[in-house]
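Q: what does this look like with magnesium ion bound?
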Amino acid sequence: SQWVYRFGGDASDGGKGMKELLGGKGANLAEMGSIGLPVPPGFTITTALCAAYYDRGEVYPSELAAQVTEGLAHIEGVVGKTFGDAADPLLVSVRSGARVSMPGMMDTVLNLGLNDETVLGLAKTSGDERFAWDSYRRFIQMYSDVVLGLDHYLFEEALEIAKEDRGVALDTELSADDWKALVADYKAKVEAELGRPFPQDAGEQLWGAIGAVFGSWKSERAKVYRKLNDIPESWGTAVNVQAMVFGNMGETSATGVAFTRDPSTGEHAYYGEYLINAQGEDVVAGIRTPQYLTKAARERAGAKAASMEEAMPETYVELAEVFDLLERHYRDMQDIEFTVQQGKLWMLQTRSGKRTAKAALKISVDMANEGLITPEEAILRVDPAALDQLLHPTLDPDAPRDVITKGLPASPGAASGAAVFDSDTAERRSGLGEDVILIRVETSPEDIHGMHAARGILTARGGMTSHAAVVARGMGRPCVSGAGSIAIDMKTRTMRVTGREVQEGDIVTIDGSTGEVMIGRVPTVQPELAGDFGRLMEWADTKRRLKVRTNAETPNDCRTARQFGAEGIGLCRTEHMFFDAARITAVREMILAEDEKGRRVALAKLLPEQRRDFTEIFEIMAGLPVTIRLLDPPLHEFLPHREEEFEEVAKSSGVGVETLRRRTAELHEFNPMLGHRGCRLGVTYPEIYEMQARAIFEAAVDVAEKSGAAVVPEVMVPLVATARELELMKAVIDRTAQAVFTERGRTLDYLVGTMIELPRAALRAKEIAGEAEFFSFGTNDLTQTALGISRDDAGRFLGDYVDKGIYAKDPFVSIDVEGVGELIEIAAERGRAARPTLKLGICGEHGGDPASIDFCEGQRLDYVSCSPYRVPIARLAAAQSAL
Ligand code: PEP
Ligand code: MG
């Protein structure tokens, strides 16, 4: 078999399509060679050889030696020097190169082929004795470290001592004789450590380095990295052996790394660093401070040292041409390594450059505008999840920050405001126009109003799926959760952390994208929603089939969602409206009432409030469908939980404390999520749903009358398990609609449908579709009930389940396709069979998750619905799924 592929000179056996066989580096070196770029000649030993080597119990196939000799002959032919020749030696580099770049692998050995004799030849041919001995000592150091396994500290220490003895600070101040002495010192150290001398034979050196590359494939570090990144062990690594070029041959030599566009902003400008008279590792190692590539970058940074554009103008122009050629050729931003040897440019590597979300967006849109890629490709190149980072205000990266602790980055974006420690204070102070940050040990549904009033939320307890995290993400509020080092003292209204104290009212800043908590205000920068972002979204909208709606119940969230392109509301959770301080009293009165008559009295107080909510939402969403879900949570959620609240609530509700206590005890449930909630409330207390339906239809008629806009209410019944439940609730809704239409002398179109969030409902979809005009998959509850895992408590053990591969991803984040997915498939099929016009959507958290959206596209659902800030993510993900 062919184990060795040549590149450079006039012979490139490989190309960019051969990454699997040649690794990324080898394939791209061959590609650059074949398109005429200056690549030092070399050869690649394939990844297949790596596999064969391990298959055979760590022995090489017998043909390999001859092929390597031929490969060397290729290099020698092009360069005109001979490997191991004492008079004029060929030196090579040896580098690993897997399919994807992989930390943990042996990286590089430079200057291989030097020994006590060839170093003299190099000194003579280069005319630079100091350079030759410096190269030799670098080689001994690198080879001993990566091939012989000696600690590089050994050599660094010797170098430091040598510098001290000479009274100099910089390597560059050492003379040829100093390096010569150091080489002797290094070699003695190797022999003392290993009991044998440093290898002098060039062939032995080469095979040693090749063996070290293959050996490093099975190193512990590489194994760990592969596991974390799902890289199969069977892939193997390639080895690249390449003629050395020297960036350290004086002032006309240099070495550098560059990106063809700015990897952090995406700006279309070359971005990079270089060093004159240096070898590759000097740039990365931080021994000397690298200089800017372009004059513009140098000036912007206010740096003095000449940029490459200024110091080597001709070579710079040549390099810039190569950048453009590579970008056109690869049709992507490239990350490049190069060396200049005595004025001659050499390319050492090119690959697709890593970039930030912001840069990914800008580069994709720019390249499509430049005609380099198609809009479809631009759509596919941006990771939808990464858009999240771009939609929120972010901290000004140049502003100073006084970080006091770090928690979990629970909901992205940054916010500053006065510290407050309870939700009522948050609401009161924000009502007075103040920005506040709500700081709690943890949050509960009673904090909704405070969370809404706050610019950001900080909690001491709770993970990424805690109440605070989920609700904050839904509202688009920045949130840092689980900042365990903070201690909140409610008596003195202070927060203590790492010896610092924050009093109520002190300004704090949180960064929900990093988890950082800071004292004081840090300026933020607003996201740019027009421009590149808007352009990409336009393209995505022309490609997607799925509609994208939003889960929202406040006017603010509705407006945000429309601004982000929501095409309707897929879920308006009406219970959130009941927590409002002004209404909770009437809600409690309704719950505490002894009979239907009492309940109706309380409901009559809620009716105008609820009508006002819906009117505002219908106005904002004019022309778009609005799905309103009738009351869902168990009633005890509205009653007080803490002892100290009973008195106050009893007083404001006008009942005795004892009555309140008794009723609370009566409503207690061991398993409230499987208890008296959803349509079960409507079955027991139809008057609640009747009030809500009335509020919906009265509001719809009002808005239609006033503005003439098409208002399309979709009334949704939660937690249905049987067709009969829906039949009963639909009767209440239809009856109420007719009553309102008669009273108002006006009718309008509306739909009645149900959530599918219980396995039984999915299975009995055929009968349920007989009553329902639409299904909305409530995948939060459907996941909870299908998997039998409590969505509120799963955080404690789901991590283990994901670690052990039981579920590939958190099933509350990304849909469990095999289980929950099959239920959806069954429900969609049976529902559509019974009613071909049945509208299908999803409104669980999964509606904003790209992988789940892909599943929904596969099921040909009509829409996905997600929190406002995820709307753009869903639009992009839906387009990617459709392409
Ligand atoms: C669901 O269960 O998926 C859903 C959207 O409803 P909620 O999260 O309000 O229970
Ligand atoms: Mg639900």
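The pocket of magnesium ion (ligand 2) is lined by residues 718, 757, 778, 780-781 (CB under 6 Å). The CA atoms of residues 68 and 119 lie 23 Å apart.
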